[in-house]
């Protein structure tokens, strides 16, 4: 199973970006999907998570600015980020808890996509 993240880039404060992360491989089902981020010099922190039933969870710093969604037909998770702030600058990593076709369940991470918020 491999995860491929995309959508990062440079955006001005107050702007928006949409991150995507698609899984490929021998996938039977995916439970949790989500995003973490790592700001230079700080520990990785949870940004958002969405479970298979559709319930969503966000880090406190999100404060209504981000929306996580998923497309199970495409094995893809999205993160719509609005009203971005300079402190959102980080490398964003997607993750998924995947049940493979042979029965085992493991966590997988994407390669990270850099989001830079700067004027």
- Low-pLDDT parts are none
Q: Biggest β-sheet, characterized?
A: 7 strands, mixed
Helical residue percent band: under 10%
**Proportion of β residues?**
over 45%
As a whole number of angstroms, the C-alpha radius of gyration is 14 Å
Order of helices and strands: EEEEEEEEEEE
Shape: elongated
The SS-based structural class is mainly beta
SS summary, helix count: 0
Counted beta strands: 11
Distance N to C terminus? 37 Å
Q: Mean of the pLDDT scores?
A: 96
Summed up:
Helix content is 0%, strand content 59%.
What structural keywords apply?
single chain; 11 strands; 59% strand; mainly beta; 7-stranded mixed beta sheet
Could you characterize the architecture of this molecule?
- With 119 residues, this protein is an all-beta fold.
- The protein is 0% helix and 59% strand.
- The chain is built from no helices and 11 strands.
- Strands 2, 4, 5, 6, 9, 10 and 11 form a 7-stranded mixed sheet that branches. Strands 1-3-8-7 form a 4-stranded antiparallel sheet, with no helix packed on it.
- It starts with a strand and ends with a strand.
List the topology elements.
Layout: E1 2-6, E2 9-11, E3 17-24, E4 27-38, E5 45-50, E6 56-58, E7 66-71, E8 76-81, E9 90-100, E10 105-109, E11 113-117
Parallel strand pairs: 2-11
Antiparallel strand pairs: 1-3, 3-8, 4-5, 4-9, 5-6, 7-8, 9-10, 9-11
